[in-house]
């Protein structure tokens, strides 16, 4: 795996993890009972974005280490996903 491939893999893992972690522990204006005029009751009051970004980075690092290790070790290859036998046999 090249450096660029590793960075792209980390970016994809980071953003997917961020989208999973983002809705956790959101306090909406409706939950607090303090709705600002002109906003929706479901708008976040406290989103803890900085904490969630740090948690996302930690989780993404762990996931990246596992996935990159699997790719670099050769346990799973591209040929394992060739369900229609279109790729040449590995030599």
- What level of helicity do the residues show? 40-55%
Structural class: mainly alpha
Major beta-sheet overview: 2 strands, antiparallel
Q: Work out the radius of gyration.
A: 20 Å
Distance, first to last CA = 19 Å
Mean pLDDT, to the nearest integer, reads: 91
Number of strands: 2
SSE run: HEHEH
Shape: elongated
Proportion of residues in β-strands:
5-15%
Structure description:
This protein has 91 residues and is mainly α. It has one domain (3-81). The chain is 53% helix and 5% strand. It contains three helices and two strands, in the order H-E-H-E-H. A two-stranded antiparallel ribbon has the order 1-2. Helix 1 crosses helix 3. The chain is elongated. The relative contact order is 0.15. The model has no long low-confidence stretch (mean pLDDT 91).
């Amino acid at each position: 795996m090249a450096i660029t491939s590793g960075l792209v893999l980390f970016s994809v893992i980071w953003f997917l993890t961020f989208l999973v972690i983002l809705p956790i522990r959101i306090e909406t204006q409706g939950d607090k009972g303090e709705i600002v005029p002109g906003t929706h009751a479901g708008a976040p009051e406290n989103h803890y974005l900085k904490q969630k970004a740090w948690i996302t980075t930690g989780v993404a690092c762990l996931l990246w280490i596992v996935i990159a290790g699997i790719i670099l070790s050769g346990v799973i290859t591209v040929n394992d996903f060739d369900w229609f036998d279109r790729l040449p046999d590995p030599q």
